[in-house]
Amino acid sequence: MFASVARKDTPGCTLDVRRGGKILAQRSYGMANLETPQPNGLDTVFEAGSVSKQLTGALAARLIERGTLSFDDSIRRWLPELPALYQPVMLGMLLHHTSGIRDWGVLADLTGWPRGSRAYSMEDAIALIAQQKAFNFPPGTEFLYSNSNYLLMARIIERAAGQPFAEFAAAELFTPLGMTQTRWRSDFRPVVPRRAQAYSPDANGAWQLDMPFEDVVGPGGLLTTVGDLQRWNAALDEPRRGWVALMTEPGRLTDGTRVPYGLGIELGPVAGRDAFSHAGSTAGYRAWLGRFPADHLWIALLCNSGSINTEELGPQLASLFLPAATPKQNATAQVATATGVPADVPGAYRNLATDTMVKIVEAESGLRIGSSRFLIISPDDFAAEDGRRARVSRDSGGHVSALVVTRSGNAPIWLEPTRTSNPDAAELAQLAGCYRSHDTDGEHCLVFADGALRWRSPRGTSQPLQPTIADTFSAPESGWTLRIRRDAKGAGAGFSASIGRARQIPFERQQATVR
């Protein structure tokens, strides 16, 4: 499983597997520092990425248990500097990722200075969040992971506790639990003994440093070892701790739908077994932490290689120490193979939330929606193995008006039928110009040259745009989708930019041409 990093010329991983506190496996692979060189070991300090959210969630839970904070507090009670737009957002929405607040990290992309290109502070990130004029969705109506939630929560915890976030965490958690090698990266400059440097491969496959030189903590920024994470797992395995129960209680949408996310903990099954888990990724660091209560199994995995996918590797590792999963009956068992897929269902669709194009094609016994396979239940009803359902909505004339994908523990996704687009040079040329948004800083330009359109950032970097559906373009290098709004003459009047964690950011045209 770790063959790709079990070498002396690559970064790697360290893992610790225990059952009921007893060590089952401890392994280290690859190098902590390729320049020294120094191998990874059990005492190597890594950054835990979004596994850090568990510790932020725990600090919030302790303050909630004491009555200092409440799930129902408006975030503006503690962060009055945020504009009135944020008044409906409650602390529970931050902790359960139902706030609708755009992810500050992807917003930073639009400033021209993405994470890793400058040293962001907490104040920088909060200012960017405060600059937003809209949410991804009305607060409380959907689950959508956003690092902004736990960043704001860290600042709220600091104010509620009346002391710096790192000091409060040390006094409340790290010192009492014996997590002596754990700290927050509140300042990226101090020397950390035995810290692994993080690396990612460049375009040619050569390793290069990929470190998080920023002072943002809460959603990430936890420096720790696998041994300290196992001390943390042991603390969460103690049922008498009231704040632990708060952490593992699922959130809810405003309509009562239960969200499979606690306080920094994913509550879904892993390898077919009930689990509390979370993956992490910051710069070139990767992590995975899992706890299986019924099996008394704890797993901590920390890596300094950006080429490692711990979201896949963590569950694979867990499966080695768990009983084989029992196949469960699901909706796909109802497949009626004698029924064919209606001819008007396959085609191109627009995701109404993100403007991305979704291709739906007929596949064996059903449909392939994007990369997922849905088997046919009835002519207008399809089911995936993970429990999602896709139902065709038709208008009074019987034509397909939408494909609605329902998800357990979340709001449905609406897909609208549309057509692919291949604009000619004249149509592309009409879009050339510079655009600005009140939600981010800097001027963005669409540049038409050599028969193609490119998107130039405020920093001067550019990337190609590819047409997908009507007046919509994808930016394959970054993952953004741009939907153009034209004026009466057909010229570009503005566009909205969307990506997974930040939707529909509006831009308005500033000038007609660009060179």
TrEMBL record:
Per its UniProt record, what Gene3D superfamilies does this chain match?
Answer: DD-peptidase/beta-lactamase superfamily
Do the record's keywords include tRNA processing?
no
Stored SUPFAM superfamilies: beta-lactamase/transpeptidase-like
One GO molecular-function entry:
hydrolase activity
Q: E.C. number, please? A: 3.1.1.103
Q: Which domain of life is it from?
A: Bacteria
Q: Which UniProt keywords apply?
A: Hydrolase
Database matches in Pfam families: Beta-lactamase
Where in this chain does the record put each Beta-lactamase-related domain? 6-307
Per its UniProt record, what PANTHER family does this chain match?
Answer: BETA-LACTAMASE-RELATED DOMAIN-CONTAINING PROTEIN, D-ALANYL-D-ALANINE-CARBOXYPEPTIDASE/ENDOPEPTIDASE AMPH
Q: What is the official name of this protein in its record? A: Serine hydrolase domain-containing protein
Query: Which organism does this record belong to?
Result: Sphingomonas agrestis
